[in-house]
């Protein structure tokens, strides 16, 4: 498991929030650019689908997963959705998971591009990691 580092995520309102992110995660793409798995949007707050899965409106989405192999974050609702819905024994390639993944892709606008109006800042020098 990689060490986590913190950075400040600042939304459109200007309020800053510290989020813990994998140091190997790619940098946030510009608005409209393809998603690169930086995870900053999901670490700052869950999307509408993430709110249902996480049962919360603030903080990191519980379905967000770090991939050591790909060195990027992935939405768990696109990987093995039933695992995040309390049904972990269902096959990842089974019909129910395929249907939920299809719905999740629409809900999170997968393939549309980055829509996170968040500015990422590196931790200040001397900040504990």
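-> sequence recovered:
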């Amino acid at each position: 498991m990689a060490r986590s580092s913190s950075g400040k995520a600042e939304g459109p309102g200007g309020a800053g929030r510290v989020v813990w992110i994998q140091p190997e995660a790619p940098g946030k793409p510009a608005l409209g650019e393809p998603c690169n798995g930086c995870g900053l949007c999901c670490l700052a707050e869950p999307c509408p689908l993430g709110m249902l899965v996480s049962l919360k409106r603030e903080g990191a989405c519980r379905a967000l997963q770090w991939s050591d192999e790909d060195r990027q974050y992935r939405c768990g609702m696109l990987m093995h959705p039933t695992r995040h819905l309390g049904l972990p024994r269902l096959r990842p390639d089974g019909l129910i998971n395929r249907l939920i993944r299809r719905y999740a892709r629409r809900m999170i606008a997968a393939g549309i591009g980055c829509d996170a109006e968040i500015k990422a800042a590196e931790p200040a020098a001397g900040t504990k990691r």
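The helical segments are 40-44, 48-54, 76-79, 95-107.
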